[in-house]
């Protein structure tokens, strides 16, 4: 029986690259990928991917306008959900970016990098947004990290970072001027600030692990 993964299409940002990576990861795995904002399709899917790119306020507004918000919240309560980039930030309580409330699924806040005047180890200034590859450290084991070595490199593009209220919800950490949470997890939810779809073989491995994750 073919199982469905819904990639939520609410008109924001990195949908194409995420959906193509999920389709690639799903090949031969018994999954069909639905790119959709139809609440009924999201509700019927076995698991859900929530991408996001750009300003969080715009992402939150477009998710509500698409009609998919309630279905995403229902999915988050009952089935595996993967958030990517701003799709991760949206899961938290609040973002400093335009004073934007999030979905409140994981306690925490999103803050802007404040790295003015700080120098990197090589003597160059920190740039915001952070763009490039960074090592991701795994504070504890998680099925979505299966086969992905601790300290692996993933690709980032962002000006804001997450702080979880509870340390057990921090599933990945990286350093850019400070150590911050770059992956969050709670129950059936896993999400990353970095872009697995831009992170070569290990990014595809992460998507594949998500497809087979049984929380």
UniProtKB/TrEMBL annotation:
InterPro entries: Class_I_gatase-like, GATASE, Imidazole-glycPsynth_HisH. Residues 16-210 form the Glutamine amidotransferase domain. This is Imidazole glycerol phosphate synthase subunit HisH. Heterodimer of HisH and HisF. The active site is at 85 (nucleophile), 195, 197. Pathway: Amino-acid biosynthesis; L-histidine biosynthesis; L-histidine from 5-phospho-alpha-D-ribose 1-diphosphate: step 5/9. Coiled coil: none annotated. It comes from Pelomonas dachongensis. IGPS catalyzes the conversion of PRFAR and glutamine to IGP, AICAR and glutamate. The HisH subunit catalyzes the hydrolysis of glutamine to glutamate and ammonia as part of the synthesis of IGP and AICAR. The resulting ammonia molecule is channeled to the active site of HisF. PROSITE patterns: GATASE_TYPE_1. Signal peptide: none annotated. It is found in: Cytoplasm. Its main location: cytoplasm. The gene is hisH. Gene3D superfamilies: 3.40.50.880. Keywords: Amino-acid biosynthesis, Cytoplasm, Glutamine amidotransferase, Histidine biosynthesis, Hydrolase, Lyase. Its EC number is 4.3.2.10, 3.5.1.2. GO terms for molecular function: lyase activity. It catalyses: 5-[(5-phospho-1-deoxy-D-ribulos-1-ylimino)methylamino]-1-(5-phospho-beta-D-ribosyl)imidazole-4-carboxamide + L-glutamine = D-erythro-1-(imidazol-4-yl)glycerol 3-phosphate + 5-amino-1-(5-phospho-beta-D-ribosyl)imidazole-4-carboxamide + L-glutamate + H(+); L-glutamine + H2O = L-glutamate + NH4(+).
